[in-house]
Every structure is written in structure tokens, then in C-alpha cells.
Amino acid sequence: MPVHVLLEGTGPQIPAHLTRIPISLITTSTDVTDKIVKGKVVHKGPLVSLNDDNFILKMVIQEEDSMPNSSSQNSSVNVVLFGSLAKNFNQSANQGDVVAASGFTVGKSPTVHKDNLHPCNLLLTEDGACIYVLRPVLPNPRSPPANKRRSPLSAELSLAKAPKYTYAKLDNLKAGSVVNVYGVVVFFKQPFKSRGTDFCSTLKITDQSNEKIGCTIFCEKPEDHPKIFQNGDIVRMHRVKAQVFNKSITLVNTFGFSVVTFGGVEGALVEPRTSSRSFHFDQDDQRTVEELRSWAASQALLASVTSTVPLSAVQPKAYFDLTCQLLAKAPIDSTCTLLRVWDGTRCPHTLLKVIVDPHVTEGQLSFSKERENLIADVLVYDNHVEVARQLKPGVFLRIFNLRAIPGSSQVRGLTSSQLQVDHLAFHLHGGTSYSRGIRILPDNTPDVQELKRVIEAFHENDEKALSEINDSDLLEVWKTPPESLDGETVDCSTERSCGHDMQTVTLSEVKRSGPGRVHHVRAQLKAYEPHRLHEALKLYCSKCKSMQDIPDDELLESIFSEASKDCGPCSPPPWTLSGQVSLPRHAPGPSNRALTVYLLTQLMSEGKIKDVILLMGSTLEEMCQLMASYQNIIPVRSSGGHLSLLDLSAPFLFRGRKRYYGCKRCSEAAVRELSAEGVEMIDEKIIAEALGIQPLQFILLMKLELQDATDRLDVFLWRHAESFFGVSAEDASANQEAQNSICQIMDSLCPPGGNVGQHPWLDLCLMAYQAEDDDGQTKTCYQVCHTTVVKPSSE
DNA sequence: GATTAGGATTTG
Question: What sequence ranges are listed for the domain Telomeric single stranded DNA binding POT1/Cdc13 (predicted)?
């Protein structure tokens, strides 16, 4: 077995041919043959089962002592163990242990940018790698081993100071005496606030004497209380006082009280749980815990008192304990908080879903349908609200004495429409009767490890998260906390300007109410399309209500090219003068090509020769070159000896960088005299009118996918898009700055690559209306209206 | 070196 547990100063030691190398000196090109690294396990990940008999485990070790030549930087390194090495290590070592490793290979750490640890990681596989767990020998004050070798100085000091503890049996407690005791927990309450200054926890313990003794612990801080997770746990208490109450002996903590708790499962690691900075623990303690474990198992003590049940096995009306992960939470009112939890199993009953405002929700707001089916909404009341307030999404919990209530019980403050009928509701009633309470379980507890495996299997199946065996990132999959808002006040990136006075509703409520209404919602932008701005720009005819894409340059080139083929003799209209322009020299194509233009005589007489010209036979490119010289250019062609306009797929007018289009259906286009008399400036409107053209409007059209805690909703941003962005669509069609502005806004509302939970919140006014889709089916559509982006801070 | 609580299902 390549995992060796070595006791300091005794028995086998690290082979002498291995020399230690400081972690900070390791690079991918370092020769690590016969080298060893040493450090404390500051993080031990779970044992991840990849498939049958293949495991992976990640840990972080930190060099504790200052090695010569080592800098304080990069003294922590990711270590990845594979196969049976991972499995054995998981059983043999714990966070806090000092370990040494040899026979490893050095890889690049894929998480260096995330964890800021060493740029390399150490990879340990079964073939050749060894890991040594270095355990100090704790001195045994009562019976030092006869053959004990000279122990390190520190151990001798500790020996001299080590107090000698004796433990009273529970059937031998004398009233008034202060004693130390061991016991198996048969009942316990989580610490709760007493009416005095302290938190109070009550427990009942027993031992081989079979005496059951109640204990009451008062401590100011909950963390100083016994860390009991379930019945069967074993507690060791120092300095508790025996008192008589109701003719029975009870134990109450006194000065100098300390407590250590151990899991009660036979054969499991004896791992002390305590908030004490230092505590005594020796081989006698180890033996005592093991004896109590096996005694408890033989008594079947726990069979009657444990009631931890997965969601898949929950019975209606039953009280049970639930081990789960918190995904999100939201306050309902001052006496009730919603906890959204899961344990990776699916409850066969329809579960109550409580709908809450997304802006008061902490944690992820919405989940995949598959995952949503696994999520239980737990309502916790009264004294548990304060405990719930301190929970962060992502933590693992055990909820004690949770009640599954079938039927349609009402939740105060929620309308009946917010509850599903025929559901199973989970309530954690107020009070502490029957151990009612919530406890955070540390990640390293066996039940949490098991839960993680189940959850991870869900990720694996449902989200295909685990794909590569050797990517140590995969270990982070289940660890990634749910997207969290951290309960911060939400600043919205948009504001309504409609002046409606109405309550904000959820997206699911919007969906439930029909068309013809206006709603105020608060939501996040999950996605939008199109992403390319030019695809969001459309041409819209206000007369026939048609909408079309803006033709691309390729199409325009072909129209121009087609039109230039037919430039035979053409009698100019009487209100024009024909002439030639030559293109600037740097123009591509035939050099000094001359193009036919028609100038307006009236404008010539006014000295406004460059205000409008009709241009014939040019390419698109040439047209664009001439834009610098003329304010308005109308492309024309010869058709049967007369001047006519180009196909209306092409712009009827080029004006500055802008191109103006007409509606094919609604225009009666022809080259007609432009009357510009008394007109200050000739613009697209005057020209369109003169040419009989129904102009098309530039519009912006986007589909936004909104989400809040309750639902997702596709809405259009169209009629109010210009005021939304503070940019005109026409400007966006021609002006880089306007385009950048829109793109920046979309990036800020829906940052590329980020997770949706972190997208900014948007206060929106939505209009629900009926529209016909392509198949002639009427459906309800939604548009954002009267909403403006609050300018994102420039970065 | 005080006081708290002293198990024992619920408003929802």
C-alpha cells in the first residue's frame, strides 16, 4: 500500500535516500527523482469515484516549516492522487495531517488562476508514488510504553504538562461532584438561545452502564457547544457538574468545561470535533471511543432513534431528518424563511414550490428542469429563521425533525395561486421540541461525502460535467457554490420611465396573465439574440407594417453591377444637366473612370451644386467614394432611354454614411423633379417624397431571454429599443460610436462568459400583446417598453 | 462564579 502512516519517533520512517525539496522550488522541469515534499494538508477534497475502482482525490498541502531557500510564496501546492492511492489516502489521512510525498510527477496546475497556489501540481499515481502520513505520538500519561524510545523534546514537555484525566461511569455520578465523562448521545438539541446570556444545548448520553443521563450545556457561543450531528455520536466532556433535578442526576457544564465529539460509526476514523484550540487525546481515548462505538452497535441503540431519510423516501405526514445541500434561500416574512435544498434524490410526491421575489433570493435563481425536480422547498419558522439567516447557499445541512405535510396547507403571506395543489410541503416548525433545528455539516463528515457522491452523479448524468479523468478541475464541479448574490442590495441596470404605478410581478405571473396587459418585472438577462448588431437592425415600413433585413453589401454590389450594364443613351430630364465626374485616383478599377451624373439645375442656380446628384453606372464602391463629395446621391440607371431608380432592394439615397431604403410594396418610385425651392436643407424625407418612395425606418429588434426565480420569458425589444439604448437605430446603422454603445450595454447586461446569477438585475416594463406567428397561430408576445438603461459605468 | 433549561411535535 503506497500510503504509510508513520508515527513520529517510532517504527518505520521515511526512507533515507529521499531528500526534501521546498515546494516553492518545484517547476515542471525539476528532477524530482528521490525527492520528497512535506506539508500540512490544508484542504482535503472528497474521494471522487470516476468509475469502478478508479478514484481521484485532490488536496492542498502547505509547507509549514521554513525550508532553506524557500520563499513564502508558492508554499502551497495542489496534489492529485489517483486510483487506490486516492482511496487509501482518503481512509488514512485527514485535513490537518502532515504528509510527505515521493515518486510524484509535476504537472501544470489548471487552477492556478483560480486558487493562486503554486503554478504546478503534484500528481501521484499507484505506480511509484508514495505518501507518508506523519502522526505525532501522543503521550499516554497513565501507561507509557515500557519500550518507549527517547521521544522528541516537544513530546516530553507535553508529557510533563499533560493532565491526567479520569472518566466517571454514568451510573456512578455523585450530586455536587465535578467529573469528566464519556457517553453515547441518545438525544440532543442543537444549541438554542436561552432567555439568559448563553446558548443552551441539551443532550442525553449513555454508556455501558446503560444509565441515561441528561446534560445541559450553557455556552455563549454556539461553536463551543458539543458538535453533535446525530444520535450515536460520542461525546467526551470535561468538568461537568452532577446535579439532582426531578430526583435524577443531570450534568451541567462548569468552569473550564470542554467537549469533544466523535462520530459513532464503528470502524470509522476517530476524528475529534471540537472548537478547542488544544485538547488532549491519547490512545486510551481512542480505545474508549472504539469501545463505546462497538457497545452502542451491540445494543442497537441507534436503530430506534435515527430518522435520516432521503427525499426519495419521504413519507407524507412523517417527521424526519434531512441531510441536504442548500441551493438558495429567501425570506418570506419575519417569521418564515424559504430554504431550497436538494439531496440528489427525487421525491416521488409532487413538492410544494414557493414563489418568491427574485431580488430577495440568495443563491441561484433558477435551475434546469431536471434539477428543479429534485429541489425541495423547506419553510422554516420562528427561531429557525435566525439560524437560516446565517446560512450560505452551497452549505451542507442536516435539518432535524422536518415535517412533510401533504395537501394544500396555506402559507401565510402567499396567495393560493402561488402554491401548487396536491403538494407535499416541508415545514420546520418553530421551537426545539424533538430536536427541531438546523445544523451545518462540515464537508468532511461521512454523510456529506456520501451526499456529494450522489449529487456529483447527478451532475455527471445530467450536465455531463465530468468528462476528463485527468482534469483536476473536475473536482471543483460539486464544490462550485451556487451562483450567489450574497444578499447584497440589488442595483438595477435599467429603470422604468412609464409612470405606471403597479407592483412588480414574477415572470411566471406574467405568463399566467393573458395579453393586453402591462407588467412590471424584475429579471435578469439570461441571453439575447442576435448577437451581431447588424442582424438586430431591421427595416420597417410604417405603412404596410412589414419588416425586412438590411441587405448586405454583396447584394447591393450585384444590384449596382446589374444596373450599370444598362447605361445606354438616355435623355436627361429637363430639370437636370448631365455631366461627368472622375473618381479619385486611388480608386480601384479602371483608372480615371468617368461616371455620368445628373445635376439639378435649380440647385446649380443657387450654388448648391453638391447638395444632390443623380449618379449612373457606378459600382457600390465608387458610390461610397463619392459620398465624401456630395451630400445626397441618388443612384439611377438607364431604362429604355429614360432615367429610372434602381431596384428598391438597394438604397434610394446615399447621404453621408447613411443609406436610405424604400418599401417596395408601398412606393411608386420614379425619377421625378426635386423641388427644393425654399427648402433649407435637402434631406431623405424630401427626396423620398419627391421620388414617390415610402421610406423604410431603421429599427432595432432583439429577442431577450429574461429569467427570475420563477420562470424564463422571451420578450422583444423593439418599439422602445431606441429609448432603451439611448441610441437611434438610424445612427446605429451608420455610426460606429452608436454601435459600440449598444454592444457595451448588451455586454454589461449579459456579460459574455459569466454566469447568469451574476448578471445585473433589470427593472422592466413589459407589454403583453397578441400576435400571429408564421403559421397564422395567435400567441402572446411581450415587448419591453418605457425602459431605459442606466448608463453602465465606463470601464 | 448569576442566569439560562430541565426533551416529549404545530400559527404557518
Answer: 167-297
Q: Do A524 and A581 belong to one domain?
A: no
Judge if the beta carbon of A243 is closer than 7 A to nucleic acid strand B: yes
Cell of A228: 453533535
Q: Which of residues 329-368 of A touch strand B (CB under 7 A)?
A: 335-336
Nearest nucleotide from residue A381 CA, by C1' atom: B12
Say whether the CB atom of A447 is under 7 angstroms from strand B.
Answer: no
Nucleotide nearest to A427 (CA to C1'): B12
**Strand B at less than 7 A from CB of A426:** no
List Cα–Cα distances, A452 to A49, A184, A443, A582, in angstroms: 11, 27, 9, 76
* Same domain flag for A522 and A555: no
Residue at the smallest CA–C1' distance to nucleotide B2: A196
* Residues (44-103, chain A) with CB within 7 Å of strand B atoms: none
Examine residue A159 and state whether it is found in any structural domain, yes or no. no
Q: Is the CB of A381 under 7 A from strand B?
A: yes
CA distance A374 to A353: 11
Q: A453 with A584, same domain?
A: no
Q: Which of residues A548 and A150 earns the better pLDDT score?
A: A548
Check whether residue A325 and residue A454 sit in a common domain.
yes
Is the distance from CB of A634 to CB of A577 less than 8 angstroms? no
Identify the DSSP state of A758: G
pLDDT band per the 50, 70, 90 thresholds, residue A771: confident
- Interatomic CA–C1' length for residue A270 and nucleotide B3, angstroms: 36
Across all strands, nucleotide nearest A204 (CA–C1'): B7
pLDDT tens, residue by residue, A180-199: 999 999 999 999 999 999 99
**Chain B nucleotides with an atom closer than 7 Å to a protein C-beta:** 1-12
The reply to whether the CB atom of residue A197 sits less than 7 A from any atom in nucleic acid chain B is yes
Q: Are residues A352 and A264 in the same domain?
A: no
**pLDDT given for residue A648 in this prediction:** 92
Q: Which of A44-53, A110-119, A779-788 has the highest mean pLDDT?
A: A779-788
DSSP A312: G
As given in the structure block, the three cell numbers for residue A112 are: 492556478
Residues A627 and A722 grouped into a single domain: no
Does residue A503 lie within 7 Å of nucleic acid chain B, judged by its CB? no
Domain with residue A262: its CATH number is: 2.40.50.140
Q: Judge whether residue A196 contacts strand B, using its CB and a 7 Å cut-off.
A: yes
Residue A682 to residue A154: CA distance in whole angstroms? 96
Write down the pTM of the prediction: 0.45
Query: What is the model's pLDDT at position A157?
Result: 27
- Cell numbers standing for residue A154: 516537544
Cα–Cα distance for residue pair A206/A305, rounded to 1 Å: 13
Range of the domain at A614: 547-693
> Does residue A114 share a domain with residue A221?
no
Residue A697 CA to B9 C1' — how many Å? Answer: 69
Q: pLDDT tens-digit profile of A201-251?
A: 999 999 999 999 999 999 999 999 999 999 999 999 999 999 999 999 999
A355 part of a folded domain: yes
Buried b / exposed e along A690-726 (16+ C-beta atoms within 10 A): bbebbbbebbbbbebbbbbbbbbbebbbbbbbbebbe
